[in-house]
Write a sequence for this structure.
C-alpha cells in the first residue's frame, strides 16, 4: 500500500476507535491498540502495517482528522483535550444534549480573581505565591486554596530561593476544564510566558527621555527567564500601541 | 484582602484600578499622564473612605508609590536626584510601574480569554460510547454471558409479546418456574446444548417468557447449566454442567432434585 | 424558518444526541428530549419549533441522516438496531475496535456471581445484604466486597428494620460500566422490578435465614452468615425465587 493510502487508512482506523471508545484516548493508548490489533492472529496486512507506528504519525493523522471535521458541516467534531482525543458535540447543540444528559456536572464558574490567578499560574508555572502577588498586586491566599480544592492547580515543588517557598502549577483537570489540548494551547502563550514587556525605544515619561538611555534593558533581561535568551528590542510585541516620543506631562 | 473584594468588587487590586484610570484617560498605557493618574487614584481612595469602605493595604502602598512618582515629576529635570539612582538601578520607577501595568493587563486579558473557554467548554459534551456492536468475531473459547446479556435477551423477547398480551392471561396460567425448571433439565439431559433464544420460541405469553427466564437463572445459580457466548454479543448458549448430568459437583445442585411441588409464581399482570 | 431548513436542523440535532448519548435512542426517547429542550427556560425559537413533533418526522430525519453516512466515506455510520438509533463502526474496523475493547474496556470481567448480585442490587436498590442473600441463596460477603472495591456499588443508607442493616445501591460507575444513562436504562427494568415473587413457606434451596433447616441443607447454611437474621416476609421483594407450595399471603 502506498504511503498516502496508508495514512488515510490510519486516519479512519483512529476515527473508528474514537467512535467506539467510552472515553477520550491519548496517542499512546491509540498506538497500543494498533499494536495489539497487529499482533492478533490472522491480522490483515493493513493491521500489521500499523504495528510500531511513530507516535508523530498518529498525531498527524488525528490532526488531519480533526481538520476534516472543521470543514464538514456536522453537529460534532474531533477535539483534543488534555492530550486525549475524542468526539465532542458543538456548543450550539448543547440545549438538546443537556435536555438528554442533564446539566454537565461542573462546579460553579470561576470568579474573575480566580481566573486571573489561574492565568498567572498557567503561563508562569512553576510559580510561587509571591510571584503571583507581584503580578496581580493583591494577596492570593484564598484564591489559591479555592483553585487547589477544585483540582485545577497543585503544588509542584519548591523554589530554590530563601525560604524555599511552594511552587504551583496547573493540573490536567485545568486543561479539561477549559477544553485545552495542552499548555501550548493557551491563548497568546508565547507572549505571556516570556515577559515581553520591553521598554519602547522612545521613552515613556518625560524625564526618562532625557536620560542617557539606561542599560535598562539589561536590568530587565535579568527578569526574563534564562531560557528565553536576550530580548530583541525590535521583537518587542507591545501591547496595544505605539510608543511615544512625547512626554505625557507638558 | 478577601473582605475587601466582597465590599468593593469592581477592582481587584490597585493595578486593576490603575488600568481602569488609564482607560478613562483614553490613552495608551505608555502615554499615560502619571500626575493625573495619581490624582485620580487618590480621589478614588478618598471616595472609598467616604463610603466607609475599608481600603486595603495594597491600595495604600500604591498610593504612596504614585505620590512619590508625582513628586519627582514636579521637580525640574535637573533637580531630579533620582536620575542617578535610576541609572545605577537600571530601573526608572515610572517605567517599572508601567511595565507592571502592561504585564497585569495581559494576564487580565488572558483571564478573560479563559473565561470564554470556560463558557464554551460548559456547552461541549464528549462522546461516551456505549459498548459498540461488534460484528461476530472469531472468538476463542467463548465468553461467559452476563446476567445483563440475559436480561437484555429476555427484554427483546418480551417485546414480541407486548402487543399480543390480552385478557386471557389473567386466567390461571399453567406455567411455573419449577415446571420450566424440570422441562429445561430434561431438554438439556437430552441435548446438552440449547440456544437461549430457542427456549422462547414456543412461549405464548409474557408470563411464560419471564418464567422461562427465571428458570434459566435458577439453573445457572445452581450451577447446573453454563451460559456461554461464542462471541461478545453473540448468541447465548446453554449447556449442561456436570451438576446436572450427575457428575460430582458442589452441594447446591444436590438440594434441588428433592424439590417439592412448587406453587405457581405470582406475577403482576400488566393490564 | 422554512420547512427544509427546519428539517435539516432537526437532523443535526438528532445527530448530536446520538453522538453524546451513551446508549442507543429510540424515536420516542428522542422525541421526549426534543420536547424537554423546548420547555427549558429561554429555549430558542428552533428548540420550541421541535416541541411536539410527529414521530414520523423524526423517523424521516433519522433515515436521511443514516443515508448521509452511507454516502460519506467514514469509518462509522448511523444505524437502527432493535428500534434504537446509534452510531456504529463499520465491520472493516472491527479488528481495531475489538483490540481496543479487549484491552482497555474491561480490566477483568465480572464473575457470574458478581453479576447476579449486581443485578439484584441494581433492580432492587436500596437493598440489604440479607435481602441479597435471600434472593441469591448464598452468602454474598465476598462479592459485595469486590463490587465495592470496583466502585460499582456503595453503601447508601440503613434499612429501617431491627439491627438497621446497611443498604447498598449502584453507583454512577456502575452506569458507566454498563453504558447506561440512568437506572431506568436497565434492560426490562419495569418488568423485573415489579415481579414480587412471593416467598415460599418452606424453601427449596437452602435459605438459612428463614427455615427450620432440613438436614441436607446444613452444608449450605454454613455459608450464610449468622448476622443475616430473620427477614420479613413481606419485605422480601425478590428477583428470582423458589416456587413455593403455598403463598404465605394468599
Amino acid at each position: 500500500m502506498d504511503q498516502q493510502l496508508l495514512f488515510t487508512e490510519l486516519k479512519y482506523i483512529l476515527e473508528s476507535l474514537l467512535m467506539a471508545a467510552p472515553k477520550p484516548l491519548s496517542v499512546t493508548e491509540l498506538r497500543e491498540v494498533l499494536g495489539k490489533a497487529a499482533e492478533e492472529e490472522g491480522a490483515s496486512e493493513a493491521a500489521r502495517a500499523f504495528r510500531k507506528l511513530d507516535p508523530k504519525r498518529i498525531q498527524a493523522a488525528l490532526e488531519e482528522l480533526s481538520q476534516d471535521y472543521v470543514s464538514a458541516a456536522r453537529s460534532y467534531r474531533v477535539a483534543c483535550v488534555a492530550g486525549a482525543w475524542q468526539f465532542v458535540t458543538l456548543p450550539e447543540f448543547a440545549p438538546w444534549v443537556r435536555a438528554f444528559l442533564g446539566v454537565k456536572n461542573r462546579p460553579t464558574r470561576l470568579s474573575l480573581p480566580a481566573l486571573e490567578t489561574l492565568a498567572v499560574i498557567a503561563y508562569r508555572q512553576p510559580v510561587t505565591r509571591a510571584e503571583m502577588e507581584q503580578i496581580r498586586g493583591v494577596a492570593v491566599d484564598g484564591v489559591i486554596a479555592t483553585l487547589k480544592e477544585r483540582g485545577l492547580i497543585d503544588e509542584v515543588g519548591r523554589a530554590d530561593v530563601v525560604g524555599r517557598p511552594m511552587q504551583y502549577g496547573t493540573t490536567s483537570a485545568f486543561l479539561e476544564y477549559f477544553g485545552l489540548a495542552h499548555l501550548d494551547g493557551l491563548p497568546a502563550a508565547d507572549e505571556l510566558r516570556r515577559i515581553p514587556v520591553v521598554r519602547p525605544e522612545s521613552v515613556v515619561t518625560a524625564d526618562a527621555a532625557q536620560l542617557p538611555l539606561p542599560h535598562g534593558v539589561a536590568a530587565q533581561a535579568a527578569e526574563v527567564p534564562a531560557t528565553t535568551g536576550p530580548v530583541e528590542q525590535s521583537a518587542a510585541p507591545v501591547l496595544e500601541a505605539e510608543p511615544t516620543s512625547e512626554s505625557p506631562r507638558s | 484582602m478577601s473582605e475587601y473584594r466582597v465590599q468593593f468588587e469592581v477592582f481587584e487590586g490597585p493595578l486593576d484600578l490603575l488600568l481602569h484610570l488609564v482607560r478613562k484617560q483614553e490613552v495608551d498605557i505608555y502615554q499615560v499622564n502619571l500626575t493625573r493618574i495619581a490624582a485620580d487614584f487618590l480621589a478614588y481612595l478618598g471616595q472609598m473612605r467616604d463610603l466607609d469602605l475599608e481600603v486595603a493595604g495594597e491600595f495604600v502602598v500604591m498610593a504612596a508609590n504614585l505620590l512619590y512618582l508625582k513628586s519627582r515629576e514636579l521637580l525640574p529635570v535637573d533637580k531630579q536626584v533620582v536620575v542617578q539612582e535610576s541609572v545605577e538601578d537600571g530601573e526608572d520607577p515610572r517605567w517599572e510601574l508601567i511595565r507592571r501595568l502592561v504585564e497585569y493587563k495581559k494576564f487580565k486579558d488572558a483571564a478573560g480569554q479563559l473565561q470564554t473557554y470556560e463558557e464554551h467548554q460548559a456547552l461541549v459534551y464528549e462522546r461516551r460510547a456505549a459498548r459498540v456492536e461488534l460484528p461476530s468475531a472469531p472468538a476463542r473459547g467463548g465468553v461467559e454471558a452476563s446476567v445483563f446479556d440475559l436480561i437484555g435477551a429476555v427484554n427483546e423477547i418480551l417485546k414480541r409479546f407486548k402487543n399480543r398480551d390480552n385478557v386471557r392471561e389473567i386466567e390461571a396460567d399453567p406455567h411455573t418456574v419449577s415446571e420450566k425448571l424440570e422441562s429445561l433439565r430434561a431438554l438439556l439431559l437430552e441435548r446438552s446444548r440449547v440456544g437461549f433464544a430457542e427456549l422462547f420460541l414456543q412461549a405464548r405469553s409474557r408470563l411464560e417468557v419471564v418464567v422461562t427466564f427465571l428458570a434459566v437463572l435458577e439453573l445457572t445459580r445452581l450451577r447446573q447449566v453454563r451460559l456461554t457466548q461464542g462471541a461478545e454479543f453473540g448468541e447465548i448458549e446453554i449447556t449442561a454442567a456436570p451438576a446436572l448430568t450427575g457428575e460430582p459437583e458442589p452441594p447446591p445442585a444436590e438440594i434441588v432434585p428433592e424439590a417439592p411441588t412448587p406453587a405457581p409464581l405470582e406475577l403482576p399482570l400488566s393490564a
Remarks:
- Chain B has eleven helices and four strands.
